Amino acid sequence: MARGRKRLLTAFLLLALTVLMGVSAFASYVGIGVVTGSTVNVRVAPSLSATRITQLTKGTEVLILGQEDQWYQISINGEIGYMSAEYVKKLADKTGDYGYGITVVDTPLYSDPDEETDPVYSLPKGTGVKIQGTRIGWYYVQYGEKKGYLPAENLMPAKPTAEMIATYAAHSPGMVVVETAKKYLGVRYVYGGSTPKGFDCSGLVQYVFKESLNYTFSSRTQLYKDGVKISKAQLQPGDLVTFATNGRGRISHVGIYIGDGQFIHAPRPGTRVRIDSLETGYYKSTYHSAYRIINVE
């Protein structure tokens, strides 16, 4: 009888172990990661056979929302998907631009990542905020002029609405342009494209200005003619930056300056809308001129 019970217990334990090993465990947490592979797929589920959402290039920072087996659940520009953990390196908590989110419950906005601290503000369920970093498992966010911390479970990354952008970029048309442009990070380059299904460089600029400020350019390709030429030192978010990329010294490419020496653009066939630096590499050497289309003072 004892041997029978022992065999039964052993069989039960083996069965339980088999079941547990067959179940994928999801560990939830919030942090920052950076893409380490040259071009890495973001998929709808943690599987190589899952549909691809987009591709991210080396150096792109993402929000890490959790881990399932060898996959990180991440958010980029409000899009939530999965990336192989092999190609994403965890970073220390930091501040930066990590898109937007929506509160999923009524929640206080805390002065520190601790529920014992005094609330800065009270945010109703469904409030859109700008995500500006993480700290010990909390989101650091901005709502209007107020900044503070939200518990990770109280916020869901989301694609920005016009209302969210207006709240964050109040009184700055240039920032409204910039935040609207960031909605389209990752959209593929299409020659002659001027919709979110695909953009070329001028198509992206035209679409963003129309959506954000209801501004229509007078030319499809020579957008800079609508503006006033400014020096590189005068650049502010929302200004146009142009480049001579064809080797002839004439303007052949355009993007939108976003601040901190960076600009957003649709580079060329085979690429996607992305952010690049004006201060190093190819775009430093091909920089041509800058123009102000709107008053961003």
Question: How would you explain this protein's 3D organization?
Answer:
This protein is an alpha+beta fold and 297 residues long. The chain folds into 3 domains: 66 residues, SH3 Domains (SH3 type barrels, Roll), CATH 2.30.30; 64 residues, SH3 Domains (SH3 type barrels, Roll); 120 residues, endopeptidase domain like (from Nostoc punctiforme) (endopeptidase fold (from Nostoc punctiforme), Alpha-Beta Complex), CATH 3.90.1720.10. Helix content is 19%, strand content 38%. The protein contains 5 helices and 22 strands. The strands form 6 sheets. It has a 6-stranded antiparallel β-sheet. It has a 5-stranded antiparallel β-sheet with strand order 6-5-4-1-7, with no helix packed on it. A hairpin with a 2-residue loop joins strand 4 and strand 5. Helix 3 packs across helix 4. The longest helix is centred in the N-terminal third of the chain and has 20 residues. It is globular and about 60 Å long. It starts with a helix and ends in a 5-residue tail after the last strand. About 6% of the residues have low confidence.
Short note summarizing the structure:
With 297 residues, the chain is α+β, with helices and mostly antiparallel strands. It contains 5 helices and 22 strands.
Catalogue the unreliable spans: 6-23
- Give the topology string: H per helix, E per strand: HEEEEEEEEEEEEEEHHEEHEEEEEHE
**What is the total domain count?**
3
CATH architecture of the largest domain: Alpha-Beta Complex
Q: Would you tell me the structural class of the helices and strands?
A: alpha+beta
Q: How many individual β-strands?
A: 22
**Which descriptor suits the 3D outline?**
globular
Please work out how many helical segments DSSP would assign. Answer: 5
Average pLDDT works out at 89
What topology, given as strand order, has the largest sheet? Answer: 17-22-18-19-20-21
Q: What is the assigned CATH homologous superfamily of the largest domain?
A: endopeptidase domain like (from Nostoc punctiforme)
Taking the sheet with the most strands, its summary is: 6 strands, antiparallel
The N- to C-terminal Cα distance equals 87 Å
Q: From the alpha-carbon coordinates, what is the Rg to the nearest angstrom?
A: 23 Å
Q: Determine the fraction of residues in helical runs and give it as a percent range.
A: 10-25%
CATH class placement of the largest domain: Alpha Beta
Strand content: 35-45%
CATH topology of the largest domain: endopeptidase fold (from Nostoc punctiforme)
